[in-house]
Design goal:
The chain is about 30% helix and about 25% strand. It has 17 helices and 29 strands. It is globular.
């Protein structure tokens, strides 16, 4: 262990071990791939970097030396295809181990990695390829991503190279009635999915596409460090906005250092542990929990290259690989709650975290009581690393985001820029004078949106919250999602949390419906749990439930039952779609007339 993280941070703690200061610094030419991964590879080559496995039974353990070797080969291969400093490369690789080779290789070349989800359709693809000026696409052969790209290529003149990755698995291999893998002619499956020679051994042919595996295997292992700067663009994410086209969030290399806070003081990652974050590489949460901070801590990450989430499989993996720290969204904790936790050995698990949506108090209590695990909640965005959280040695308050982390100066501000009083709802803002490590550079090619979000010395997150007398932050909702009813400002988060405590509710979304008397009426759109059916009696019961557990004015005057909630391609609930559907159906007229 080299304590590499201490090269980049100055820390201080109070007498109870709680972090009080966290200042990041680095040389102007800092590069995560060279100065972290390659350094470990050269000085501690056998240290585990990643355990990778898939449902088909394939498993690989990559050391940091392996990561250096394969990323050097990948960098040479991509350079031969004309990819260099400043070029933008769309990367759609699910959870394939090749994603890590590519991420490091692009950093070494000074190119900009643009991760994306495999669920994109033609409209989404055209917007991304043209909006970012993508030069090359590196995509999985699993699913229909390559076909989607081929369908729109004629509309996207910036694309010069198409590179296809054969994963030979990804949880998509068909099985027979007995659950055994089906062997198809010409396709290697089973216990040697990557081929008898090992990593990147499965070949693929598709007209107009290069074979990534073949090209990387043939490439040289010798790669000399290239000139890059910490201030260069490194990573571009398309934000999962709830309305309109996604914004293009540009980060420099300091973003990787910002995630030292995420991994060290929220995930509580330690060098001899195994960290498991459940996230697809198309989402920002993947680099939160499967790359930057964890490897700065010289820790091993677990990656499971699956297609569909099965709670039992995830619990089995925690047991099988001795996972010590774990992070997943609340939805996954709820699904795992439905399993018999007593049938799984979770004794290795020391720490658990969550972010992204409501963690209702009963879920917090269940994991504490049944598994002995406290779930530490946190908050951040595509534009940031962790900015608010329940850090190590903190005492979480169920339902609270926690407190601002010492890396950032965070405040809750009114519309006029003044600070809110205790208990007053306002916008979460981060001081960017000067811009600290981890905060986005800009919304790429959109100076108007950048100026709207970053002005007067603050980055305006668009999320609202209130602060209690002890400094804990309590999430209310997105600015656009806050409901103004009868003079009250009502956030969807709190009502959703209360409803999720009821056994009948599997998922829910709270929105406002225009109402002439109140300004807006609260509506709950609910997906019921198995064994429950819509009824007037259930509606009254759920309304009474909310009234009994929170302020009565917040109860949903309208409840609609649906089979599923509308979501973005990144899985976030699209409340705007519910509001738009209500407006189109005349729901507000029904409310005004007292019909619902």
């Amino acid at each position: 262990m080299r304590n590499i993280n201490l090269r980049f941070v100055d820390e201080a703690y109070d007498d109870q071990g709680r972090l009080t200061r966290f200042d990041i610094h680095c040389d102007p030419d800092y590069n995560f791939a060279y100065d972290v991964v390659d350094d470990i590879a050269l000085n501690d080559p056998e240290r585990r970097a990643m355990i990778w496995c898939n449902p088909e039974g394939e498993e690989h353990v990559f050391t940091f030396a392996d990561m250096k070797r394969w990323s050097d080969k990948t960098a040479n291969y991509l350079a031969a295809l004309g990819i260099g400093r400043g070029d933008k490369v769309l990367v759609i690789l699910r959870r394939h181990y090749q994603f890590w080779f590519v991420a490091l290789a692009l950093a070494k070349l000074g190119a900009v990695m643009v991760p994306a989800t495999f669920m994109l359709k033609e409209h989404d693809m055209v917007y991304r390829l043209n909006g970012a000026g993508i030069k090359a696409v590196i995509a999985t052969a699993a699913g229909d991503v390559a076909q989607v790209v081929d369908n729109v290529l004629g509309e996207c003149p910036s694309v010069e190279a198409l590179i296809l990755v054969e994963p030979a698995g990804a949880g998509l291999t068909e099985r027979d009635e007995d659950g055994d893998l089906i062997v198809e002619e010409g396709r290697i499956i089973g216990s040697a999915l990557s081929g008898p020679e090992g990593i990147c051994a499965s070949a693929i042919e598709r007209p107009g596409w290069h074979d990534f595996n073949a090209g990387v295997r043939a490439a040289s292992e010798g790669f000399a460090r290239r000139d890059t700067l910490a201030a260069d663009p490194m990573l571009l994410y398309f934000s999962s906005g709830t309305s309109g086209n996604p914004k293009m969030v540009m980060h420099d290399s300091l973003y990787s250092l910002g995630h030292l806070m995420t991994a060290k003081h929220w995930h509580n990652v330690r060098p001899d542990g195994v960290h498991f974050t459940v996230a697809d590489t198309g989402w920002g949460k993947a680099v939160w929990g499967k790359l930057y901070g964890q490897w700065l801590m010289e820790a091993c990450v677990l990656t499971y290259d699956f297609d569909r989430f099965h709670a039992g499989e995830i619990l089995d993996l925690i047991e099988r690989y001795g996972v010590t720290t774990f992070c997943a969204p609340p939805t996954m904790y709820r699904l795992m709650k439905q399993e018999d936790l007593s049938s799984h050995d979770l004794s290795s698990l020391e720490y658990a975290t969550t972010a992204g949506e409501a963690l209702n108090p009963d879920l917090f209590a269940y994991w504490k009581d049944e598994a002995g695990i406290t779930i530490f909640e946190g908050f951040g965005q595509t534009e940031t690393p962790l900015t608010i959280g329940n850090l190590t040695n903190a005492v979480p308050r169920p339902g609270s985001m926690g407190k601002p982390v010492p890396l950032y100066d965070v405040a809750i501000l009114r519309e006029d820029g003044t600070r809110c009083d205790t208990g007053e709802t306002g916008e979460i803002c981060i001081n960017i004078d000067p811009r600290p490590a981890g905060i986005m550079m800009e919304y790429h090619k959109d100076p108007a949106k950048t100026a709207a979000a970053m002005h007067d010395g603050w980055y305006h997150t668009g999320d609202t919250a209130w602060e209690d007398e002890d400094g804990y932050y309590w999430y209310v909702g997105r600015n656009d999602d806050v409901i103004k009813s009868s003079g009250y400002r009502i956030g969807p988060f709190e009502i959703e949390s209360v409803l999720l405590e009821h056994d009948a509710v599997r998922e829910c979304a709270i929105t406002g419906v225009p109402d002439e008397l109140r300004g807006a009426a609260v509506k709950a759109t609910i997906v019921l749990a198995d064994g429950f059916a819509p009824s007037e009696a259930l509606t009254r019961e759920l309304q009474g439930w909310v009234k009994s557990l929170t302020a009565p004015y917040k109860y949903p005057r309208i409840i609609e039952y649906v089979d599923e909630l509308p979501r973005t391609v990144n899985g976030k609930i699209r409340r705007v779609a519910i509001r738009d559907a209500d407006a189109a159906s005349g729901k507000e007229d029904e409310v005004a007339e007292g019909l619902v």
